[in-house]
Write a structure and sequence with these properties.
It is globular and about 60 Å long. Helix 1 runs antiparallel to helix 2 and helix 6 runs antiparallel to helix 7. With about 200 residues, it is mainly α. The protein has one domain. It is built from 8 helices and no strands. The two termini are about 30 Å apart.
Length: about 200
């Protein structure tokens, strides 16, 4: 399933695993373990996200609020929308968010040996939370939310490519330092968005 906030992570990672790596024996073994962990994560993500796609609220959101994937037939229409989230639509988006949130720990399970990958996922999750919060608070239109989604997909591809490449060529220490600096700058706005969403949900 090509679902918001997660699909591009795993599409990219799975594609990346197709690359052939021929380092020394121990490094080759580590690469195989890493590739297996990424593929298993992608499989768990697909299973969870396909399951929640059966939820009527999730279906409603993809039909009326956020496009499902880059080739969705309603993508252009939603990108052009100047409407803000109607009060009657909030319940669908909140249920959608709750369903997506439930998949997050399933997606990152088994990746504890690769903190840079988990950090990349968590940044994507946090940025998605900001988008949800802005939509619910009517700070942005549906069209602006979908435009932001396009940007997040691009950023996800870039960040994930860097994280995977860093692991494969052994530069994770420097990469983690760079990402930690960036993450520290972004954490405050993500925390505000998460707090807003938790206040609404619970």
């Amino acid at each position: 399933m090509k679902k918001f906030g997660s699909y591009l992570f795993f599409t990219l990672l799975t594609m990346g695993c197709a690359q052939q790596i021929t380092p020394a024996s121990q490094e080759q073994n580590n690469a195989k373990i890493f590739n297996a962990a990424i593929i298993q994560s992608a499989q768990r993500a697909t299973q969870c996200l396909e399951e929640i796609s059966k939820n009527p609220s999730v279906q409603y959101v993809y039909a009326n609020i956020l496009f499902e994937n880059p080739t969705s037939p309603n993508k252009i229409e939603l990108l052009a929308s100047t409407a803000k989230l109607a009060d009657s639509q909030k319940k669908y988006l909140l249920e959608f968010y709750s369903q997506i949130q439930g998949c997050r720990p399933i997606i990152t399970a088994g990746l504890s040996n690769y903190p840079s990958i988990i950090s990349t996922f968590n940044r994507g999750f946090g940025d998605s939370d900001i988008l949800f919060a802005d939509l619910l608070a009517k700070r942005i239109t549906i069209g602006e939310a979908n435009t932001e989604k396009v940007k997040l997909i691009g950023k996800t591809i870039e960040d994930t490519t860097s994280a995977v490449a860093a692991i494969r060529i052994g530069y994770t220490t420097q990469y983690n330092q760079d990402m930690n600096r960036q993450e520290a700058e972004d954490n405050s706005k993500r925390a505000i968005a998460a707090g807003y969403l938790m206040h609404i949900l619970y």
